[in-house]
Amino acid sequence: MEQKVMNQAIISALEKFTELDEKISHFNSILGLLSWDQKVIAPKKGRSIFAKANGTLRTEAFKLSVSEEMGELLSILSSKESEDYLDDEAKAKVRERNKFYHRSKRIPADMIKEFSVLTSQANDAWEDAKETNDFERYLPYLEKIVDFKRKAIEIYGYENHPYDALLDEFEPGLTVEKLDPLFVKLRESSSELLRRIQSSSYKPAAEIFDQPYSVNQQKEFNRYILPLIGFDMEAGRLDETVHPFAQTVNTRDVRITTRYLENNVRSAIFGTIHEAGHGIYEQNIDPKFEGSVLQEGASFGIHESQSRFLENMVGRSEQFWKYFYPKLQEHFPDQLGNLELDEFYRAINAVQPSFIRVEADELTYNLHIMVRYEIEKALIAGEIEAKDLPGIWNAKMNEYLGITPSNNSEGVLQDIHWSFGGFGYFPSYSLGNLYAAQILHKIQQDVPEFYDSIEQGNFAVIQNWLKENIHQYGMLYTPNELVVKATGEELNADYLVQYLEKKYSKIYKL
Length: 510
Fold this sequence. Notes:
The chain is mainly alpha-helical. The chain is built from 21 helices and three strands. Helix 5 (109-132) runs antiparallel to helix 6 and helix 8 runs parallel beside helix 21.
């Protein structure tokens, strides 16, 4: 009789948990839509006012996630007795909700609401500060955000380095101890390769991009390539914004943005391909995960692997442009009509240390991430303060890239991430590059005709592999479980180091 009662309690708990999980997921979908609206189409004067409504809804979702009911349900469903009643999907849902619950239950709801309002206002302050090169305008908000993060870390707890608590938020299971060796190897090899490239007598003709490219033609070309590379325009849309991003409302409503610069045609093309990588990932998550905590990508690093893979390993490949270059020439006959494909390919892969991360070439991009990673570690540990960031930023840029920003807008103010509290986020970009190179190695083993398919415009071969091995699973597996399942081994830096060496040795005739 006792066993029967226990069985019924578990079944009842699972039903209630599923309903609660769905309710929270619906709230988060609405919050995703609000976030997109604020960044894309909301009138500027109303943003700070609406931030309060946004904060109220976010607080309600948070309260549900750490409610007494959630705690009781998780306690039942995490018990040994429940194992036989939960399939892999249910276990993964419990794992994710349980992690958030225990991580966040001690944070007061008022603190969450205050932070939500703060970051909404900080986003506007950052935009103004970047536009006017006024770091002092942004500093008070940044100081409050850093203070919040330090307090939250003490609540979360950590074993070795305080930054571990933030890394775990974006890449579960990752620590400074695990990340540092990966980044040291990547930084040292990238710096050494950069020195050899700068010593090479061969220089790609990157100056072909130093001329006007019609924004309307750029828009037309982007809308041409998006569906061909796998982004479903009936389940998504493309808009303009200050800083490109992807926002999922649900798996059938994935919104991506880009920005257009008349004198930088590469920005919109590769920015759009990058965000499409995020969008395709979300569109291909198994629909059965819709309305649950599993309806998102496995981690920020895995997500970035999909965008960086599509942007660089596909979008900057010679085979990609063998297919698309004639169409690009049609859009820009005066600029590119007489330029050979080989020259164009080398030009889009030209290596040149630059100030803006999102415009950085594939090699030096990782050095931008090292700058931010080292700063964030020190800032969170209390070794430096927000007011000192402009000088520290410039010094790090000089150390890693050999250049010094002339103003804060092209320096410490260039990224949006700190304005929304995204400390711990930046490593995801280089992690994405590391994952992407490892995935590329495995795809080429499984699909030897990988690059031949790209040259023929057959992107279904690529997307089918990615959907089968990465996309469909959403958050069903942890990042480490997923990369092992997909590639057969844990993450290491060797594949990216080898990929960069091979690619740039050929381009620069080293």
